[in-house]
Automatic annotation (TrEMBL):
CDD domains assigned: fer2
Pathway: Carbohydrate metabolism; tricarboxylic acid cycle
Keyword match Metal-binding: yes
A GO cellular component annotation in the UniProt record: plasma membrane
Cofactors, names only: [4Fe-4S] cluster; [2Fe-2S] cluster; [3Fe-4S] cluster
PROSITE patterns noted in UniProt: 2FE2S_FER_1, 2FE2S_FER_2
PANTHER family linked to this entry: SUCCINATE DEHYDROGENASE [UBIQUINONE] IRON-SULFUR SUBUNIT, MITOCHONDRIAL (PTHR11921:SF29), SUCCINATE DEHYDROGENASE IRON-SULFUR PROTEIN (PTHR11921)
UniProt feature coiled coil, ranges: none
Family: Belongs to the succinate dehydrogenase/fumarate reductase iron-sulfur protein family.
Keyword line: 2Fe-2S, 4Fe-4S, Iron, Iron-sulfur, Metal-binding, Oxidoreductase
Pfam families per record: Fer2_3 (PF13085), Fer4_8 (PF13183)
Organism: Speluncibacter jeojiensis
Protein's recorded name: Succinate dehydrogenase/fumarate reductase iron-sulfur subunit
GO function terms (MF aspect): 2 iron, 2 sulfur cluster binding; 4 iron, 4 sulfur cluster binding; electron transfer activity; metal ion binding; oxidoreductase activity
Length: 250
């Protein structure tokens, strides 16, 4: 059954902006992105919104809906009561370009800082052998659609612009973990994670895991194992002794 919903949508650009009120028709089965498109089609043709697939797979339509980071195309209007005002704002962690569109290039800079998969020298295609458990770990992390909702919600950079230099964020901790725990990757990525990507800033609040639309266990399966690996590498007395002895001999 159709009804009229009240929407507040943030309009503006890098110089500032404000919430604008809209009253707009909602039909059965629609999602927030449908309503944003209806506002664009009928009331605000210059409303900027980024989207591509409308199927929860491209990661483009990330925004904050009633303060919660979400994919607009996967947020059903039936989530809200008919008399509830729905507020849609751009992701807060990234600079606004216009309206609901943010500049997420920070993430691509961080992505480039992670060295790619490094197989052992001489390993030929067809010689790769992995246990199923290792395959499944990679598959879980590779479900990431790069919506950057986890990056947006992470308090380390959400409220602290100055941390962005030294912090890569949860999306890249799963990439780091995937490679570090990959049985055929020979690069040691523990120092990179701790010193350059800021793994130590994360205090395992799990907010990233809660908002991930792909259900990736970011903290339990990637961040905590990486922290354990760093701690074992740096603070295990036997590892420390081994390093000392090896250095002395060499
Ligand atoms: S668990 Fe760590 S990475 Fe995830 S939101 Fe919290 S501080 Fe950020
Ligand atoms: S890990 Fe999840 S929340 Fe983060 S970018 Fe990937 S899909 Fe989005
Ligand atoms: S439009 Fe592709 S994830 Fe929403």
């Amino acid at each position: 059954m159709a009804y009229d919903a009240k929407f507040k949508v943030w309009r503006g650009d890098a110089d500032g902006g404000a919430l604008q009120d809209y009253t707009v028709e909602v039909n059965e089965g629609e999602v927030v992105l449908d309503i944003i498109h209806r506002i664009q089609a009928t009331q605000a043709s210059d409303l900027a919104v980024r989207w591509n697939c409308k199927a929860g797979k491209c990661g483009s339509c990330s925004a904050e809906v009633n303060g919660r980071p979400r994919l607009m195309c996967m947020t059903r209007m039936s989530t809200f009561t008919e008399d509830e005002t729905v507020t849609v704002t751009p992701m807060r962690t990234f600079p606004v370009i216009r309206d609901l569109v943010t500049d997420v290039s920070f993430n691509y800079v961080k992505a480039r800082e992670i060295p790619s998969f490094t197989p052992p020298p001489g390993l030929e295609p067809g010689e790769y052998r992995m246990q199923q458990v290792d395959v499944e770990r990679s598959q879980e992390f590779r479900k990431c659609i790069e919506c950057f909702l986890c990056q947006n919600v992470c308090h380390v950079i959400r409220d602290h612009e100055d941390n962005k230099q030294a912090y890569a964020g949860p999306r890249f901790f799963i990439r780091l973990a995937e490679l570090e725990m990959h049985p055929l990757d020979v690069a040691d990525r523990r120092d990179l994670g701790q010193d350059d990507m800021g793994l130590g800033y994360c205090n395992i609040t799990k907010c990233c895991t809660e908002v991930c639309p792909e259900g990736i266990h970011i903290t339990d399966n990637a961040i905590i194992p990486m922290k354990e690996r760093v701690a074992g590498h740096r603070y295990d007395p036997l590892v420390w002794l081994g390093d000392k002895l090896f250095r002395r001999r060499s």
